[in-house]
Amino acid sequence: MADWDPSKPILEIKNLSISFFTRLREIPAVMDFSCTVMPGEAMGLVGESGCGKSTVALAVMRELGKTGRIVGGSITFKGRDLTTMGDEELRHIRGSEIAMIYQEPMASLNPAMKIGAQLAEVPMIHSGMSKDEAWKLARQIVADVRLPDPDRIINAYPHQLSGGQQQRIVIAMALMAKPALLILDEPTTALDVTVEAGIVDLVKELGEKYGTSMLFISHNLGLVMDVCDRICVMYSGEAVETGNVTEVFDKMRHPYTQALFRSIPLPGADKNARPLISIPGNFPLPHERPPGCNFGPRCDYFQKDRCDAADIAMDPVPGDDRHGTRCLRWQEIDWTAPPAKREIKEKAAVGRVVLKMDDLKKYYSVSSGAFGGGAKKVVKANETLSFEAREGETLAIVGESGCGKSTFAKVLMGLETATSGSIMLFDENVQSTPIQKRNTDTVSQVQMVFQNPFDTLNPSMSVGRQIIRALEIFKFGNSDDERRQRMLELLDLVKLPRAFADRMPRQLSGGQKQRVGIARAFAGGAKVVVADEPVSALDVSVQAAVTDLLMDIQRENRTTLLFISHDLSIVRYLSDRVMVMYLGHVVEMGTTDQVFSPPYHPYTEALLSAVPIADTKVERKRIVLEGDIPSAVNPPPGCPFQTRCRWKSQAPAGLCETEVPPVQVLEGGHQIKCHLTRDVLAQMEPVIKIAAE
Amino acid sequence: MLIFIARRLGLMVLTAFVLTFVVFYLTNLPPNLEKLARSEGSVRMSDEAVAQWIIDNGHGGSVLGRYGQWLGVVPGWQNVDEKGVPRGRCFAAGTDPAAAPRYCGVLQGNWGYSTFFRGPVLQNLGEKLAATGWLMLWVMIVMVPTSLVIGVVSGMREGSRTDRVLSTFSIATTATPEYVSGVILVALLASPVTGLSPLLADWGWIDGKVLFQGAASPDKITFWSFTLPVLTIALYGIGYIARMTRASMTEVMTAQYIRTARLKGVSFGQVVMKHALRNALIAPFTVIMLQFPWLLNGVVIVETLFNYKGFGWTLVQAAGNNDINLLLGCSVVAVFVVLVTQLISDIGYVFLNPRIRLS
To answer: Do A367 and B1 touch (CB under 8 A)?
Structure first.
């Protein structure tokens, strides 16, 4: 390390190309990728799944598996070429000089080893530290990543910690040897937003404290803006635009970057007046890339015989800070022009009440103890849920994992029966009728679109057959021909080509599968559709298209849509009313405008401030919640949110700990379940401010 | 934990009742009893005499009643035969019926009289079980470490040459039933006329005529007599457990936490020993415990083949000689061995895998 000058880049990747070799062919995963990370700098790698961003990260670690190989270019770390380094030398760099933080903390920790042992291993290998000293250091680092009770934690097994705590442990593990470069591969994707906010703060703070450089991989543009100094946008194995974060966000010079920003719901987007613009077409498969510009076939500015003539090189944008774009036409395009084809849609009128829940409760009883004995405990998954949903309305249900939103969906669908309370569906009581006993009409009227389109289609049945099967179950039509006809119409409805009827699910992309899922849900003319995180498993550019499709079908059929999500940006974009849940309680309910502007429930306020927004003009107040969501098995007494609430001191003394707050109805029917007085609520400031242009 | 064990024990007892009843019913079918009468009484008995013999010897009445007597919850039968001698379940012919206990069944420790051994079932069965226990102990000592090592070594680098060689070996051994591998081993190593032994004897490398002995006896356990029976049983199990261990090991080696460990800079040996091994052994543990009941089956063939007088041999003799009480005794033992090993396997599983909770 002596011959390395700290003013030089810590990591320099030059013209890197990586291929995976299968029996059939060589599949290029990354082509001609270059980037430089200076000491103390945070570099963000952004792109959709399959664009090669994780491959770049793994190549830096030289961990490409048996099939992957670096076929060209160089990766220089502190002046030494990693691509030609021997195994033994590499082993010394891994973990001590370059450390990595992974997407799924649970899977990255050894389930059968104590946390302390996993942490202490790092200094024991790299600096020959004794076991006692290493454990002491582990304890100290665990305290550094702000985990409570470090002595208990280092003696725990991974499964005894929550997701957020596990991720902090993975971070602690990476920091054990004080590495010079930290690679973070989607570190917060598996976590809740409020937990994510805490982790992001921690990473930023530790980066400053130890002067660590970072390579931050994410598909979330807002997060990258929060964390990184520089950004590199990747598309189909190539870096298409790179530069300083503010320059790329404000003065983007590549059509893909522009299209990406137009497809994410930023504040100000609206489903009727300013709908999102999805990127047409599909991501090219690695072995079917078009000649010339990879983005060409989906690009609005495509010129034949020019964009598809030859490979395109990175072109620097003069005057900016190392800003470059892989576009031939960037100087010709008018980047300030508004998007051409934004169609304005009419707002659908809201009709009569179709679904009414009153005081709904759902409790589960679970037993503790390794052999099934032990005390029985009650999990209160839903507490006193009351609301109405009207025809043609979109009601969003927002909350973090464990807040009871999925339980609510199960009870409504009839997969579980309610403990008490009532559910009125078109003047029919369904709260205690399980789905097996519901009649076909009721079942076909309430349908669900599931979160993960990859698991919800039968892999051995063709798409058309699956939809026909749903029609058969709903007793639709009298003959197979009739049902087949209806199936084709449904494919039209979800904008899939009719030829897809004979395809198998594995031949479809994620977005297409989700469209099939939607077609199936609407097969019986559903009146109420529960969409459980329908787009969270999809890429940003596809999300916009699927959301718009749902909205279009809703406008046409006047369906009531219950949209369950943790993503507040998309909720703000498409819902009419919002219901915020925390630990089984509805803490706030009102129209979208009411919920997204003050007065807030303290939890909503924190939730809003935790969502990263990819817009440099937006100013956001940071409120980081301490700790994790309490367990539903052992909820705190009084207000469920009191353990993390920052407004607690302003509420009437002692009430928060002892009494469940009453529902206050503010003007316009805006409901807040809080002990804070109206005066205090009225003093709240907006979390998000959009700076004047 | 106590509740769990109590519940499992209850279930075990219930299973034991059902299974023994099934065996009892099948062994006490009328043709069986007739055969018994002719072998115990006289081959030339008339049909009427056979019927009388069955009733005189307590095999009359309902099946349930007789099952109850065998269990010891129904009073034992008593009657007087044609010669005027009082006979009964609970006393030998010629002794005073009044002094005998009312109940005498399995629960009272009376497992009946074995017509094959000409003695009480319990004592004979105990001896044979002990003999099989020694055989099984050696099988386990050979089989478990070998198979785990083979499985781990072939699983840690999936698709490598070592993996392919070891996998081929494991598949070949599991695919060979004991009656084939036993015969091959005997022919190869324990025959004075074929295989290796005559060659070795010619060269003067061995003293006797054969390298290993083709028969074994529980009274004299030596390396030379025990190698072949132990190997015959173990070979099949080695292949099977090694395959399971390999599958589990390859899965663990592709897990993300193994990648984490590698990217921490842990060397390959340490990755295998410290990170992969414990996780990879969870699945084979259940398989190994499942081998116990299977071993009981396996010994039937091997003990007969090597004329080793153990549990399996006893089972074959009991069935071949229509020894009802001995057969019933064997089934009780088998049921308990199976159920107890399953209980141990479930409890051990919880301790190996910190995430598991049983209910």
So the answer is: no
